[in-house]
Write a structure and sequence with these properties.
11 helices, 7-stranded parallel sheet, globular, single chain, about 40% helix, Rossmann fold
Length: about 325
């Protein structure tokens, strides 16, 4: 059995759905918080509950004793920790909430993994740990990492904790630095989703840095394919960090043009000169390390991925 935290979240839902369809037994945990629309999370869980090989626990990972007690009757040999408080901007407005939800649960799930003698612990990190490096693309071996947001700092803290646990308790830890993951059933707070909704409602969209932002948009199915392969591999390192990104950044303006084309509707734009505090102007992953390790190469272009997202978006929200 595989324990997956954050199973009602965007990546967690897609991963668990994929694993269940391949007959893996999955124990999923999520607290279904109200950071964004709960109905979206509940709909994800409803889909997962259709599988007989899925067990769901609605639990708050911040409560260690309760978590330990709840998991006592289950046997699992792999932990995939995806639960977190997302949002760079949210972390600057609510730093305590971000740190409380990204550090305490991480420590608790790591400790559970130690107690239960889990052999492999896979966890979500983020491209936000890099901050604003001057050299592109971002490489895992970069020694000048300097997060510029509380969210990025919380994710880097997770990596440091995982490295310490792997050294001291022989747990193989693999940190996955995700780069702007997008797709159906995505997070409403992310630009592509938020822009689509505002455009549908004929509302104006704020475009920062006059649209001169770049993101290494990585489609969800490419991400899931990579995680599935990582689950199976044997690693020599006690602690391994991997970039999971498309490996080529796209302009924010290109994203906007694709949304307009797919929605058949021109977006009302308000160009703003500045970059929001904590935001990174450009993300660009060097994915050569993961390519060599698992022979993985992302296949989905932004054009194809956005079309698939809008198809889902219009179907889910019953847009005619």
């Amino acid at each position: 059995m595989i324990l997956v935290t954050g199973c009602a979240g965007f990546i967690g839902f897609h991963l668990v759905n994929d694993l269940l369809s391949r007959n893996y037994k999955v124990l999923g945990i999520d607290n279904i918080n109200s950071y964004y629309d709960k109905s979206l999370k509940n709909d994800r869980i409803s889909i997962l509950k259709k599988f007989k090989n899925f067990i769901f626990l609605k639990k708050d990972l911040c409560n260690f004793q309760e978590l330990k007690k709840s998991l006592k009757r289950f046997k699992f040999n792999l932990v995939i920790h995806l639960a977190a408080q997302p949002g760079v901007r949210f972390s600057l407005e609510n730093p305590h909430a971000t740190l409380n939800n990204n550090l305490n649960p991480f420590i608790n799930v790591l400790e559970i993994s130690r107690i239960r003698r889990v052999k492999k612990f896979i966890y979500a990190s983020s491209s936000s740990v890099y901050g604003e490096p001057k050299i592109f693309p971002f490489t895992e071996s970069d020694k000048s990492i300097d997060p510029i947001s509380i969210y990025g700092a919380s994710k880097l803290s997770n990596e440091i904790l995982a490295k310490s646990y792997s050294k001291n308790f022989s747990i193989k830890c693999i940190g996955l630095r995700f780069f702007t993951v997008y797709g159906p059933f995505g997070r409403p707070d992310m630009a592509y989703f938020k822009f689509s909704k505002l455009n549908q409602e004929n509302k104006v969209i704020d475009i920062y840095n006059k649209g001169k932002m770049f993101r290494d948009f990585t489609y969800i199915t490419d991400i899931i394919f990579a995680i599935r392969k990582i689950i199976k591999i044997k690693i020599k390192e006690k602690h391994l960090i991997l970039n999971i990104g498309k490996g080529s950044p796209d302009k924010l303006i290109e994203l906007i043009k694709l949304l307009e084309k797919c929605q058949k509707k021109i977006i009302k734009k308000n160009y703003i000169n500045n970059v929001p505090k904590g935001d990174i102007r450009k993300t660009f992953s060097d994915n050569s390390k993961i390519q060599k390790l698992i022979k993985w190469k992302p296949r989905t272009t932004l054009q194809v991925g956005i079309k698939k997202f809008i198809d889902w978006f219009e179907s889910y929200y019953k847009i005619v």
